[in-house]
Amino acid sequence: MQTEHKKLSDADQRRVDEVTSTGINSVEREAFHPWRMMLWLAVVIVIFGVIARFLGKLYLP
Known about the structure:
Layout: H1 10-20, H2 34-59
């Protein structure tokens, strides 16, 4: 059985760990919900459609 080779030296791994544990990478994010995004997109499209119909009836003969 072969031993697994390290891809990074210990110093490089420490630097990578330091960067990934600070800033935007340290913020825990909520899971991505594609259905929720599609629902919001549909709501926005419907709202813009209603506004467009209202403006069309208001300004067009």
